[in-house]
Design a protein that fits this description.
With about 70 residues, the chain is α+β, with helices and mostly antiparallel strands. It is about 15% helix and about 40% strand. It is globular. The protein starts with a strand and ends with a strand.
């Protein structure tokens, strides 16, 4: 079962873009093992970080407090 999620944003976006894109995701299990997800949300754009987090919560079925967004 997944305990914590860290979402790393895509740093290759153009400055004028007003959308948020996920670069990759690291999921930490209850046993401390980390799994890396590079293409889970492939090039999807979100109007806000909140919308991105809501999508991640739905995919991993975790509480939103378990999701950390690294900028």
């Amino acid at each position: 079962m997944v305990k914590n999620i860290t979402v790393y944003l895509d740093n290759d976006q153009l400055e004028f873009m007003d959308r948020v894109r996920c670069g990759f995701i690291v999921a930490e299990g209850e046993d401390g093992r980390e799994t890396f997800h590079h293409d889970l949300i492939d090039q999807a754009e979100y109007p806000s970080i909140k919308d991105l987090v809501e999508d991640i919560v739905g995919i991993f079925r975790v509480h939103k407090d378990s999701v950390l967004v690294a900028v």
